[in-house]
Amino acid sequence: MGVLQLSIPPDFPLPIPGNLTLLQFLIVLTFVLHIIFVNFTLSFATGAVILEASAMKTHSRRLDDMARICSLHASIHKSIAVVLGVAPLLIISVIYTQYFYTSTLLIGKAWLSIIILLITAFLLLYVYKFSWEKWENKKGIHFLVGFAAMLILLFVPLIFIVNVVSMLYPEKWSGANGFFHSLLHYPQIWQRYAHFILASLATGGFYMYLYFSVKQRKQTLSDVEQSLKLGGVKVAFWITLLQLVFGSLLLISFDRNIMLLFMGDDALLTALLLLSVFLTILLCALLYVVSKNDRPSMFYASLLCFVLIVGVMGWMRHEVRESYLKPYINEYPRTIEMKKENIKPVNKQ
């Protein structure tokens, strides 16, 4: 434990400013809200670029219009995603201070670059959105702008994933050498990244069907809007089906003792895993029916199922973090209450 004694700094002498259980509940809730809008932004930016590339290849006006709608929705949700990210970032820094700050310092340059990267991506998204007609005869340039914004938006989550995975492995901190080295230094990073990106695409598919279903109540949808609506639910179905595979790959990437907690060693975690698998299979069945028959009632049932899955996944994510850090927290406990030895008398002159 000699290395750990050097690596893990002591907790702040000031106690956690709030009830720990409440803060743990809030970190799950605020993270779920934040990540949904992140998923929207990534999904629509990626969808817009893919659709525009297909439109350029096939000279399809319909695909180009679909891409334009996706770019509009991407620009709407990006700001909400950033604002909602403040709360979970603050909470995680409060209840996991020793681990989060250390893991952040280990990738300090990459972490600081997030601000520049997001500003650049947002500006590119605005250019991409508002130059659709102006650059109609310069499709190559227009596509490259959207493609650059998409690449940045797909890269930023990797920085966050490296950070939150790094904090789970204090024993590996001494061998870490910056962000790019960490991509291969720590386990489960790429499995988490693949799982996250697929979840983003599926979430965007849900949004498209829901958005145009609500709009359809007020007016008749155009052919382009109808295509996005039905295409969205099909994307959600196939991606959710694929998530069963990538979710399994993520599970087996955990340390053996953590993986076994979800496979019978811990009743709660095992129940959460089984519930998530059951809900995912049910969701696939509901989405398949919707994709074949376009039944809004079945979609709302699948939406409820999706919300439950997101909640369970957020809870499981927290439990994984707690399970990894439990031995270290036991040895280096959090400062829950003010200790007498931390109170220094004030010298009166």
From TrEMBL:
Report the family membership.
Answer: Belongs to the cytochrome ubiquinol oxidase subunit 1 family.
Question: Can you say what this protein is called?
Answer: Cytochrome c class I
Keyword list, A-Z: Cell membrane, Electron transport, Heme, Iron, Membrane, Metal-binding, Transmembrane, Transmembrane helix, Transport
What Pfam families is this protein classified in?
A: Cyt_bd_oxida_I
Transmembrane feature ranges? 22-55, 76-98, 110-128, 140-169, 193-214, 235-255, 267-290, 297-316
- The yes or no answer to whether the keyword Transit peptide is present is no
Claim: Protein biosynthesis is one of the keywords in the record: no
Where the protein is mainly located, per its record? membrane
List, alphabetically, the InterPro entries matched. Answer: Cyt-d_ubiquinol_oxidase_su_1
Localisation per UniProt entry: Cell membrane
Its placement in the membrane is given as: Multi-pass membrane protein
